[in-house]
Design a protein that fits this description.
Blueprint lengths: L1 H14 L1 H38 L5 E5 L5 H8 L4 E7 L1 E6 L5 E6 L7 E6 L7 E5 L11 E5 L14 E10 L18 E7 L11 E6 L9 H78 L4 H47 L6 E5 H4 L1 H17 L2 H23 L1 H9 L4 H39 L14 H26 L4 H4 L17 H4 L4 H12 L15 E2 L5 E3 L3 E5 L11 E4 L1
Parallel strand pairs: 4-9, 6-8
Antiparallel strand pairs: 1-10, 1-11, 2-10, 3-4, 3-7, 5-8, 6-9, 7-8, 12-13, 13-14, 14-15
């Protein structure tokens, strides 16, 4: 008996192989979409996190609109939970002969490091390593020449205007191939970046501080990591703002003190100048008195002509010296006046002294590529919560209906087996094996393609503008298990449920055809105006949809199913009856003519 049962199971596979493949394909499609979408978001975040870890990406960055002094550096090192901090400098310029702007960054050793793709990192102040995206435009050994916005080789903040290309690198600070950020050089949009040594910059005060924290845990993009980093940033922000205000007040006080000292010097000079003016004025009066006396003596003739000439010559020299002294006093007064005006302008400038900014930002804020990559992964997560439902709903619906119908078709066979002495479990074996194999086959194929193929295609589309390589797609045991479970439930449960209901009847009852349901009118038949205008096929379709929602009105070949009665007449379940031109066994699939 067992061998006959096994032959019967094998025969079921042979005669309904197309149905078996259809069920497996539908379930595989559902598993393919479900696993593919569910694992893509986590796989993207894992790939990104590995890239950031390899580049020792900073947790936060402090930017300043002025140089960061040594006192500020010492203060920043003492901020809460700072594990490492590294200071750097950057400067923007234009590549000569193009409209492309480039940002030169000082080489880092501990945080946000640059990994070499080819060549090496710069060692001297006339060397540069470019972004790996520039390998198609430049070659190692070429000279890169830079200019300012006025096409001049004199670039403020840089000692050199030409550099030898020694390598190509990647950086976690520049994750996108395009839209690297805004700049004041060139067109206003940063095109690429390069790495140089610190000696290239004229200023010894850095403008960037990169930080890592000792209290953050978890991978990038996880709530645990993001919340802790943001908490550290918020805590440090108020401290840095107070530090910036204190430094601004200190700079203003220092500048005012210098102005006050200069004004005191000018006041002393003005006092001396006024004394000199008084002395010159007295000398001028004495000289004028002497000239008046000489003129009166000349008019009265009391002084000989020779003596008069000698005295006039003696007065000529003091007169010339007096004129020169007056001229010198006028020049000195003009200098003092100009210096006073400069002091007034400086005081006004101090009143308009710009605020010093120490801006601290987490990865999501200072790195647009990091934020956008994470948002793309979230979009896929949202899509995975809705889109797979459509595919699995179709697969579940078809599987439920097909397996239920399969059990209905086996009604008389089940009755025969029970009459021959087979147990209830034996009669269910064909459905258990059939459904299990269909579910497993579909799940395995769908899981294999959904783990490797679909995530890579989605990553290629969403990450086309990113430089993050080596996309990782490890198998997800959780979602594979969920998918297999759903598939097995869809294929085994309906058949077992229908069979269990049948097995409640006696074998003799099961060996008879299932009696048709009684006919009744559908709701649309009570609207004669519409019902009379429907064709015969539409009337059949409407009645079948209304009365047989859970079963097919048509067989595998699209023919109408009908049952043979004892008087060789055939009934369509419900309300039609007709005669057939050819003898049939249970279902009729040939041409028929109808009688209402």
């Amino acid at each position: 008996m067992k061998s006959i049962l096994r032959k019967n199971i094998f025969r079921e596979f042979r005669f309904s192989f197309a149905r078996f493949i259809s069920i497996a394909t539908l379930l595989g499609l559902g598993v393919f979409v479900l696993i593919g979408l569910k694992v893509t978001g986590p796989d993207m975040r894992t790939t990104g996190n590995d890239y950031y870890t390899a580049h020792k990406m900073a947790d936060a960055v402090i930017n300043s609109n002025t140089g960061i002094t040594k006192a500020d550096q010492a203060y920043m090192r003492q901020l809460p939970h700072v594990k490492k901090i590294e200071f750097g400098t950057s400067k923007d310029a234009i590549i000569k002969g193009t409209n492309d702007s480039i940002r030169l960054n000082s080489k880092t050793d501990n945080l946000s490091i640059n990994q070499t793709i080819s060549g090496r990192l710069p060692k001297t102040k006339n060397e540069i390593a470019l972004s790996s995206n520039e390998r198609s435009r430049y070659k190692i050994g070429e000279t890169l020449r830079l200019v300012n916005n006025h096409n001049q080789s004199r670039i403020s903040g840089l000692k050199n205007a030409s550099y030898k290309i020694v390598g190509f690198v990647t950086s976690s600070d520049y994750l996108m191939k395009e839209n690297l950020g805004a700049t004041s050089a060139g067109t206003g949009q940063l095109s690429t970046f390069g790495v140089v040594v610190k000696d290239v910059f004229t200023s010894t005060q850095p403008t960037i501080a990169r930080l890592s924290y000792n209290n953050v845990h978890g991978k990038s993009y996880t709530d645990k990591y993001e919340k802790q980093v943001q908490s550290n940033v918020d805590n440090a922000e108020s401290r840095l703002n107070n530090r910036a205000k204190g430094r601004r007040n200190q700079l203003r006080s220092s500048a005012l003190k210098k102005i006050e000292n200069k004004e005191k010097e000018l006041a002393t000079q003005q006092t001396k100048l006024n004394q000199s003016k008084k002395q010159l004025s007295a000398a001028s009066k004495r000289l004028k008195s002497s000239k008046d006396q000489l003129s009166r003596a000349q008019s009265t003739g009391r002084i000989p002509v020779g003596q008069l000439s000698a005295q006039q010559n003696q007065l000529a020299t003091p007169t010339a010296q007096l004129k020169a002294s007056y001229k010198q006093l006028a020049i000195s007064q003009n200098k003092i006046n100009r210096a006073r005006q400069i002091m007034i302008d400086q005081r006004q400038a101090i009143n308009r002294f710009p605020a010093i900014i120490y801006q601290i930002q987490s990865r999501n804020d200072y790195n647009a590529g990091y934020n956008q990559f994470g948002e793309n992964a979230k979009r896929i997560d949202v899509l995975s919560n809705t889109f797979p439902i459509i595919f699995f709903a179709v697969a579940i619906l078809v599987s439920l209906t097909t397996m239920s119908r399969m059990a209905e078709e086996k009604r008389q066979e089940i009755g025969t087996q029970r009459a021959l002495g087979y147990t209830k479990f034996d009669t269910m074996k064909v459905f258990l094996i059939y459904g299990t194999l269909a579910g497993l086959l579909g799940s395995i194929i769908g899981a294999w393609l959904g783990t490797g193929l679909l995530p890579r295609k989605i990553f290629d589309a969403y990450a086309a503008n990113f430089v993050i390589p080596n996309f990782q797609t490890p198998p997800s045991g959780f979602w594979i298990g969920i998918s297999i479970l759903i598939s097995l439930i869809c294929t085994i449960t309906p058949a077992v449920w229908v069979t269990s209901k049948m097995l409640k009847d006696q074998p003799a009852t099961l060996m008879l055809p299932k009696p048709p349901k009684s006919g009744s009118k559908v709701l649309l038949e009570h609207v004669p105006f519409i019902w009379r205008h429907l064709s015969f096929n539409y009337k059949v379709t409407v009645r079948n949809l209304a009365r047989y929602k859970g079963a097919h009105a048509y067989d595998n070949f699209g023919c109408i199913r009908m049952y043979r009665t004892s008087d060789n007449r055939f009934w369509h379940p419900g309300f039609f009856k007709w005669h057939c031109q050819y003898p049939v066994s249970e279902y009729y699939s040939l041409r028929c003519y109808w009688h209402l």
